[in-house]
Design a protein that fits this description.
The complex is a heterodimer of chains A (115) and B (110). Chain A has 115 residues and is an all-beta fold. Chain A contains no helices and 11 strands. In chain B, 0% of the residues lie in helices and 56% in strands. Classes of the chains: A mainly beta (115), B mainly beta (110). Chains A and B meet through β4, β5, β9 and β10 of A and β4, β5, β9 and β10 of B.
């Protein structure tokens, strides 16, 4: 399976600032996704990162708050903008090869704390 | 939207015993997947079962799927301390977008 590197692994940020999280894959992948895991909770899909076009956001998530880039088939970024303490979460990227019945593989996540 | 519900929320057993976790979902699916998460780190994919399959095995793992009841179970046999983790089911409704259950926290006591 693909090796996924996520940076940074953790950060502590001040409210009102923005942070960009990077996701690098060691091989070309069809699908890349971004998930949020709030403290003690399960994972929620933020958006599908589309190569060369705007990301597809899930209900409750907007581009102004979570801008996403995907310039090629191995790299994507998620920015958490104008952060507040409610944004304290683990953010995870995942990758898949598209098609039916294919597993996704996850990075180690970015643990973000907002003061 | 969260559609998966897992049961129990927490499970504590002795090493060597079997652990069973259950997952229910609400809509039609392409497949159901089980993942493990250690201490808030990334998720590790364990097993994928397709909607037309009823049972699947991988090492000490056994997964069943009952689409008529919209439910699945994960059995870990002969548990080990290293199995201590949170376990999540996730359903793929299409386009590989996963909807996760709330998870089961499994603790294996030596």
């Amino acid at each position: 399976s693909a090796v996924i590197s996520q940076k940074p692994s953790r950060d502590i940020c001040q409210r009102g600032t923005s942070l960009t999280i990077q996701c690098q894959v060691d091989s070309q992948v069809t699908m890349m996704f971004w998930y949020r895991q709030q403290p003690g909770q399960s994972l929620t899909l933020i958006a599908t990162a589309n190569q060369g076009s705007e990301a597809t956001y899930e209900s409750g998530f907007v581009i102004d708050k979570f801008p996403i880039s995907r310039p090629n088939l191995t790299f994507s970024t998620l920015t958490v903008s104008n952060m507040s303490p409610e944004d304290s979460s683990i953010y995870l990227c995942s990758v898949g090869q598209g098609g039916y019945n294919q597993p996704q593989h996850f990075g180690d996540g970015t643990r973000l704390s907002i003061l | 939207s969260q559609q998966g519900e897992e049961d129990p929320q927490a499970l504590s057993i002795q090493e060597g015993e079997n652990a069973t976790m259950n997952c229910s979902y609400k809509t039609s699916i392409n497949n159901l997947q089980w993942y493990r998460q250690n201490s808030g780190r990334g998720l590790v994919h364990l097993i994928l079962i397709r909607s037309n399959e009823r049972e699947k095995h991988s090492g000490r793992l056994r997964v069943t799927l009952d689409t008529s009841k919209k439910s699945s179970s994960l059995l870990i046999t002969a548990s080990r301390a290293a199995d201590t983790a949170s376990y999540f089911c996730a359903t793929d409704e299409g386009a590989q977008k996963l909807v996760f259950g709330q998870g089961t926290r499994l603790t294996i006591n030596p």
